[in-house]
Amino acid sequence: MGRSKEIAKKTKHDHAESNRSRARPQASRNQPEVPQAPQERGTRSLRHLTPPERALVDTYKSKQLSVGRFFEDNVLREFECLDEVNRLIRHPRLSLLFELRGPTYSPVTYEFLATLNIKKDANDARESISFSLFDNHYSLSVNTLGVALGFQDAISVTMPYFRDYKTNFNSDAVAVQYWKSITNNAAYNSSNLKAKLITRNSLKAIKLAFAVNLSGRTTNKNKVYRQDFFYMWCMENRVSINMGVQARKWLQTQLKKKVKTVFIGPFVTRLCQGLGLANRLPGERDEGPMVAFSVSEFFAMYLKLGGDDAPDLEVDDETDEEDEENDDEGNDDAAAQEHGEPSAQHDGSTSMDWEVSQAFQM
Predict the structure, then answer these.
(1) Up-side HSE of residue 304: CA atoms within 13 Å toward CB?
(2) Can you say whether residue 134 is alpha, beta or left, with left for phi > 0 and alpha for psi between -120 and 50 degrees?
């Protein structure tokens, strides 16, 4: 009798459990998981920034975020310029521009730009920049900036010969002569140089990469800026460049209000790695690595350019050369005012200069 009661009790318990199971929704094993909504861009809290700096973050978030572009070997091989491109970019370390393919991390990129301050000096070597990364404040000379990005090493920037590294053409006559040599003697107009006049595919490919990665241009890539032209001349003639000064110029371009893209992300990633902050990057929102140019894109957008050029949304053609010439004057002052107080004035700012800090590790 007791055995019968025990069996009846167990049966009642199993029946109740079965009813509860049916009441709960059961996920099918074959039913795919619903993907979570992507994290909103740049959601890492930047509350340590000042109100003006947070306003700048909002401004940069409103712009297109570019992860950068590069050429794969098969694209260059398709246009029979792979070997020449590799030869040209090997010196002066400009190959690194094609190798900066790491991801762009949006929060730290916005933090960097919102706190970036560039201090100009009549002597390029005395220029410096200050900024914040992960709430760490840094002040770097331009030479140290070049080292942190991997363009130069810590020893070379202390050598006397480094003072002779170029930052611009020796004279306009040199620029005119070089332009004619790569365009079958086309007329030289410093404010209106067109890439479609260049006769070599290797230089066209390099110029296209410069336009996207060093100035964030999404249209009118046919225009050759003096800075890009200077790089071509240096590659052709194996002239050494002070790459820290050039990096400062790229940052200065990024600060201009008329630039509609945030293109500096891959450089911020490399800067974090150079400053020993690589272990902090995995926690950031990853916007993806650099994207390769396709064969059809290269052909359609660049080699066969003709007729009227697309309007340049980033830079006004009529004032571009004037802007470039004035970068060392009014534009820097305006950018500094827009960015408020220099980040180096925060308490705990880390000043890094190879002449005084040899502990910095790459």
Answers:
(1) 8
(2) left
